[in-house]
Write a structure and sequence with these properties.
452 residues, alpha/beta, Rossmann fold, Helicase, Ruva Protein, domain 3, 4 domains, 5-stranded parallel β-sheet, 3-stranded mixed β-sheet, 22 helices, 54% helix, globular
């Protein structure tokens, strides 16, 4: 096994994982290859356990793709990394008792402006259409101070451009940071939570609070629906947002749901979410989808015939990520086979994607889910909590939300569940698919078959 295996795996993992997950859990790891085993060394047991439980399979899959064979991976605890430097004269007062083992944070720095190379998107790459024109204008407005508020809330389904605009805002502000020394914190709600938990375990909660409330100039926070049902975390977030508001800092929040659609969230926090400008992003129309394909083709330095562009735009309608993925696969297949990009080749690639058919109603979705999971409609709407039934029910919630105009409450009425249960089910499916877990890939395949 090649000794530099880990260095080759890192860019693969960075592309596969969310930036926050990669930065928080993968970057702190050291690695070495010994006796054909990849040994990963974590800064503490908390990080080691988290990687073993949640990321080990992803690392194994990346190694399999790279080497062509199953790689044995061992995650252990290496030498502790100090979080802060303690003056020599204070060591006696601050050193923990011999039996106490303090946890070091994997990231021991305050939020700050990230390197421009870390921002994945820019405004110039964002294709504007009627579906997202308002959101894009608001995002640019918060950058150039033409928006009447410093607080922006972006709401859209998965794959419709929330992350693109968030990173574009970060990049635009970071490009000016050499003059204004802007401190930007860009992270997911889950990463914010994990950092806080790690800080508490390391007895560094006060420093964490000070960093986010006193040092940050811009907070870019993704997927705030993650805070539902987490009372203590909601309290910390509310205090952080209020502190930033008092200091006149910019805050941009994103979610798959509008503030009023969230459940089990402190009313004060909901009010805070809704206190700025709210912009809702819809699925792109046909013309916008065509322009997305043309723009992506130019970035890939490839000519795509108009009939192929029209075919992809017509058949892939609900998710920009899926549209771009299909084009990437089409270009790659053409290059590997040494062929021209043709409509016939495009149809072959489209077989792997959910293509456009008349939008399904609730009845068709329910019938599809019951057939896919081998249950009947009565069981789907029952109080059963079996794993298979709950998974089927959550899939039905997700598909109804994506393919119908029904509200969360209306979906719940059709399937015999409360608004809050529907919301939690949708979030669970979105999260699994987004993180590309084994269950997420299974769910993704099931979801795609609805329109196949």
């Amino acid at each position: 096994m090649n000794a530099d295996l880990w260095q080759k795996l890192l860019p693969i993992l960075e592309n596969r994982l969310e930036q926050g997950l990669f930065t928080l859990w993968i970057k702190p790891l050291d690695a070495k290859v010994q006796d054909n085993v990849l040994h990963l060394s974590a800064p503490n047991e908390f990080v080691a356990a988290w990687v073993r439980d949640r990321l080990l399979e992803t690392i194994r899959e990346a190694a399999l793709e790279l080497t062509g064979r199953r790689t044995e991976i061992v995650v252990s605890v290496g030498q502790r990394r100090p979080v802060i430097q303690v003056p020599q004269q204070n060591l006696a007062q601050t050193r923990p008792p011999p039996a106490t083992e303090s946890l070091a944070l994997p990231l021991g720095h305050a939020p700050r402006t990230e390197s421009l190379s870390r921002w994945r998107f820019r405004f110039d790459d964002f294709v504007v259409g009627p579906c997202n024109e308002l959101a894009c204008a608001a995002a640019k407005g918060i950058c150039n101070n033409s928006l009447a508020t410093d607080h922006l809330f972006l709401s859209a389904g998965p794959g419709l451009g929330k992350t693109h605009l968030l990173h574009a805002i970060g990049r635009h502000l970071a490009e000016r940071s050499n003059r204004s020394r802007v401190s930007i914190a860009c992270l997911s709600a889950e990463e914010f939570t994990t950092r806080l938990v790690l800080a508490i375990k390391a007895k560094e909660a006060a420093r964490f609070k000070a960093e986010f409330r006193d040092s940050v100039d811009v907070l870019l926070l993704e997927d705030i629906h993650f805070f539902q049902g987490k009372g203590k975390l909601q309290e910390e977030l509310l205090l952080t947002l209020k502190a930033l508001q008092q200091r006149g800092c910019k805050v941009v929040l994103t979610s798959s749901f509008l503030p009023r659609e969230l459940s089990d969230v402190d009313p004060q926090l909901v009010s805070c979410f809704a206190s700025g400008f709210m912009a809702l992003m819809q699925a792109p129309d046909y013309a916008t989808r065509e322009e997305i394909i043309r723009r992506k083709a130019r970035s890939l330095q490839v000519q795509v015939p108009d009939n192929v562009t029209g075919l992809l735009a017509e058949r892939l309608t609900t998710d920009i990520r899926q549209l771009e993925s299909c084009l990437n696969n089409l270009v790659l297949k053409a290059r590997l086979l040494g062929q021209q990009i043709t409509e016939e080749l495009a149809w072959q690639v489209l077989e792997n994607y959910a293509v456009q058919t008349p939008m399904p109603g609730v009845e068709r979705i329910v019938a599809f889910v019951c057939k896919s999971y081998g249950i009947d409609e009565r069981e789907l709407k029952s109080k059963s909590r079996s794993q298979q039934t709950v998974l089927a029910r959550n899939t039905a919630f997700f598909l109804c939300r994506r393919h119908t105009d029904l509200s969360l409450a209306a979906i719940g009425d059709r399937l015999g569940r409360k608004h809050s249960t529907v919301l939690k089910g949708i979030i669970h499916v979105e999260r699994e698919i987004s993180h590309q877990t084994p269950l997420g890939r299974q769910l993704g395949n099931t979801v795609d078959r609805l329109l196949a």
